[in-house]
Amino acid sequence: QVQLVESGGGLVQAGESLRLSCAASRSIFSFNPMAWYRQAPGKQRELVATITSGGMTGYADSVKGRFTISRDIPKNTVYLQMNSLKPEDTAVYYCNGGGYRGSWGQGTQVTVSS
Fold first, then answer.
1. Concatenated DSSP letters for 43-107?
2. pLDDT one-digit tens code per residue, 20-47
3. Cα gap 66→52, rounded to integer Å
4. Over the Cα atoms of the chain, what is R_g?
5. What's the Cα-to-Cα distance from 71 to each of 89, 96, 103, rounded to whole Å?
6. pLDDT tens digit string along 59-69?
7. Sequence-separated contacts (24+) of 56-64 with Cβ below 8 Å
8. 9: Cβ–Cβ under 8 A, 6 or more apart, which residues?
9. pLDDT at residue 70 greater than cutoff 90
10. Using an 8 Å Cβ cutoff, are 14 and 85 in contact?
């Protein structure tokens, strides 16, 4: 089973930026869709952004225009660039397959203060 490790979260103020990384234990991104998800306190996990094997991207309406998903195939890493962060973006962020999903990891905490 491929292992995915999220990193890059932290505490920032509203309007600032963060870049999250998702490192895979083997090469998978060139043939599999990938996605970022998040779960805020008291809410269900939601889909944030997707990228297909062909590089096409999609975003939840709540982050469109602010977040960008990308990948570095030789490094087996997918990224989520988050700009203009808002307090409502506060959540634990996870990466996983965009179609088939494996086990969920621990994610990385993003906290945005007012």
1. S--EEEEEE-TT--EEE-TTTTTTEEEEEEGGGTEEEEEE-S--GGG-EEEEEEESSS-------
2. 999 999 888 778 899 999 999 999 999 9
3. 19
4. 13
5. 21, 13, 20
6. 999 999 999 99
7. 62/88, 63/89
8. 18, 20, 92, 93, 107, 108, 109, 110, 111
9. yes
10. yes
Mean local confidence (pLDDT), 70-95? 96
Q: Do strands 10-13 and 4-7 pair parallel, antiparallel, or not at all (unpaired)? A: unpaired
Give the residue carrying structure tokens 């993003």: 110
Residue 76 dihedral angles phi and psi, to the nearest 5°: 55, 45
Please give the Cα distance from 25 to 6 (Å, whole number): 12
- Amino acid identity of 54? G
Q: b/e per residue, 62-76, with b = 16+ CB within 10 A? A: ebeeebbbebeeeeb
d(CA 88, CA 15): 12
Distance CA 50, CA 11 (A): 24
